[in-house]
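Collaboration report, partner site 2.

Our partner group contributed sequences for two proteins of shared interest, and the home lab folded both. The records are reproduced in the order in which they were received, starting with the first partner submission.
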Amino acid sequence: MEFKEVLKGIDSLYVSYKGTIKEGLKERLEEKKKLAQSEDEKEQALAVMTIDDHCFEVSDRGTKWYSFILVDNWYHLQISGSKRQKLPQIYVQVSSELLTCYGLDNAIINLRKIVNMLLEKIEEETISRTDVFTDFVTNGELETIEKVSWITRAQKTHKYWNGDIFTGWTIGQGGDILARLYDKTVEIEKSRKEYLREIWEKQGWDTFQRVWRLEFQLRRELLGQMKINTFSSLMEKINDMWKYCTRDWLRLAIKETTINRTRWKTNPLWEKIQDIRFNDGKFTGILREVNKSRIPSDKTLFQNGIGYITAFAAREGFENVDKGTLSEYLEKAKNYLREQTNGKDEDYLKTKIGNKKKKYNKA
């Protein structure tokens, strides 16, 4: 049976921080949030906050426990602003791209710099959730796996199809551990995590095979039971955590005739998965640059833009798209906009650009 790892590591990380927010921070956040809530688009464009070298968009809303939300392509920060000591003042989601390409160590060092600019002192730093994963290719027929072959402590098991194409399993929905086994090559068509293709290819992926991801999502209660509270303990115990997930909590077995399923032999594919090790807890990343800004891709900008320009060219009788076509398009677009805005087209465009900069985390 063919089995090849093409990537492994930590895909999701949620961290909470206890401490006292710095003097005046709550007032600054309230001011920025009000700007985000304004009906005036010029004021909305000012709802940004620069911390270290990050230009965060400040959301116009919060959550039940956190009044303020700051977002860029690296971090999703929720800030309480409350003086209640039971609730962590800051709750952060670290982006999966950052963890994969920049590494856990680097991601956390940078995050602490940001948090130290928000809190007088970090009194407690706790991992609230983590997802550990492996990406692999195999010639095993995963779609033929039967529900009965999963030996698990979980109560809920679901198999997923996209039409006639098998796409994966979820096991343990709603519990402290959630396992997902799914076709990552299909998933990234929606998530647009194209950087994964480049990483897989460097690890020997032939670009034609389906890449499968097995990931385990572990929540705070179980992490606490495993005494995984800090980053150092996560890195120290990552292999023990994987061992527990793939041997004690979940196992793929070969269906047999005996009633006691726990005695069924382990599927050879699963044995390969059980043997995976995570570099003794060292996660330096792929060392690929990760943009802090949430900028649109060239594909998004140009594919959509070219569609409109070629439609204009066809309508106006042009045979191709050249400087003359673009000049005509721009002139007619500005004339149209000038009519729609009663001569305030330049002001309108500046406002729109300002709001796009806020959305894309561009200062």
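Second partner submission, folded after the first:
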Amino acid sequence: MFSRSIARSLATMAEAGKQLVKSRLDDGIFVITINNPKRNNCVGHPTAKALVEAFERFEADERAKVAVLHGEGSNFCCGYDLKEVSEGEFVGADTEFLAKYRYMGPTAMSLRKPLIAAVEGYAVAGGLEMSLLADLRVASSSAKFGVFCRRVGVPLIDGGTVRLPKVIGLGRALDLILTGREVSADEALSIGLTNRVVEEGKALEEAIKLAKLIASHPNACMLVDRASVYNSLSAPSLKDALDFEYNEGVSVLNESIQGEYRRALKFMSRDRAKPKL
């Protein structure tokens, strides 16, 4: 009886999650939207599962070259939905999901393709951790970052202690993690927490532009270079990192050579088409 009740609850949550996360593919760019603005795009269990499903679709769809993650409305994400916990809505018995993923959903995933986070408003606590899943972050001028969960005694369990030092360095990461202080968009840019600061309300638009630029380049070459960068962070030695870079690069060198050849032909044909003076 109890197990059937849990199963029904999980099914209901899965249906709710479909409304809380939206996704669309547009010209090679896979846009994922956290659609819970009334709760500042906080992530509950239904949203976490729906986010995982969206990222799995992105990874599986060869038409999708780059993903952009953003929050509907004025905030990116303010972390886990503690109201869900306080109201007893959280189903902690979903151990199969939590064994593979995390409370925020996809934060334990190792994505094969690039992800850009478009940050408006607050990206704090688990929302900060979610933004760190991305390769790049584009923030509006009013964006705010921070380990706000420090203030209420909730630990970072969605990759924050792992990814933040790799993005901004150990000392700066410890500053944010230990103090729980707020970080402005300008400071985030200065410490490398965000890659671009744009006009308020333009983060998604600019992130999509950046995604299209990335997607316009030969794909296989870009993917192996990206993989080599991440591999270098945990490679046992410099030699291992260099060997990985070389072996992965050689595997797509043919595409690169063909791409350069096509560009050379295009350049020469354009040059021949110029009128003689």
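Feedback sent to the partner group on the second submission included the following. The chain has a mean pLDDT of 88. The CA atoms of residues 125 and 225 lie 30 Å apart.
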